Amino acid sequence: MLRIAVPNKGSLSEPATTMLKEAGYRTRRTGRELVLVDEANRVEFFFLRPRDIAVYVGQGTVHAGITGRDLLLDSGVSAVEHLPLGFARSTFRFAAPVGTMTSLEDITGRRVATSYDVLVRAFLAQRGVEAQTVHLDGAVESSVQLGVADLIADVVETGTTLRAAGLETFGEPLLSSEAVLITTERHRDEPGLSTLVRRLEGVLRARSYVLVDYDVPVDRLERATALTPGIESPTVSPLQNPDWVAVRAMVPRKDINRVMDELYEVGARAILVSSLLACRL
Ligand SMILES: Nc1ncnc2c1ncn2[C@@H]1O[C@H](COP(=O)(O)OP(=O)(O)OP(=O)(O)O)[C@@H](O)[C@H]1O
Ligand SMILES: O=P(O)(O)OC[C@H]1O[C@H](OP(=O)(O)OP(=O)(O)O)[C@H](O)[C@@H]1O
Ligand SMILES: [Mg+2]
Question: What cofactors does the UniProt entry give for this protein (predicted)?
């Protein structure tokens, strides 16, 4: 049976569970279940701390897992990214009290508070910057005010937490992170893993595309389908009125309003947009 590690807490937990549910897998009923066997899909899910997931995957005791790219890099484990999952997007940045630091050189000799020591030390070593790290479990933003560090290196999404602590980012981001499905080279071809990956890809596609249907006069068909080329090719069906045809195609969700405006300009009418529940392309 395929063994998959799923985050049990924190920012990754709920979206990971939602995604697996949309991919047709069983989900746990309470936050207390540690293991869930999905007999129908031949998968066993283990609910583990997000930070530990790379360790379990790296050791090979589970075949794959969902974690953050930043957590994977900080673990130092030789697991590999198999599929980016598009949620828990964040950047990892240095931040210091407003107006005090502008470049990496300013870090020299200072104390950097972080929960991601391995990642931060590797970054500083690579840039030849000598500094001390102070390990904290969380709420890292408070460390400067409380005097245990001079600056921090932490996850930034909206920047709200930083601002509340009187800090601002400086220098280039250490990395961009998001949730990722990880595995090891030796488990990459595990039976069932390719099915899980295909299902998750289906969910990602269904989230990023919509289905558009419209009617268009035959003499404008070419201009209209140039706007909606679809993935392979749009479906064109005859209508009772021989001067018109119906078209159906997938369109990136982010483009749909512009595409609808342009279709209307071209002469398309009855433009209908629907969400996709799932797909396999
Ligand atoms: N505010 C956020 N926005 C987006 N991603 C985030 C945010 N906070 C944490 N993450 C991401 O979630 C993962 C961190 O997992 P972690 O379990 O530490 O989440 P958490 O929300 O910080 O949980 P905890 O409540 O235990 O601190 C990392 O990949 C990190 O980049
Ligand atoms: O840029 P923002 O939108 O403010 O989000 C970033 C904050 O979110 C996370 O904190 P979390 O709530 O997980 O608390 P923690 O620091 O204790 O992990 C992260 O560690 C940052 O502190
Ligand atoms: Mg946190």
Answer: Mg(2+)
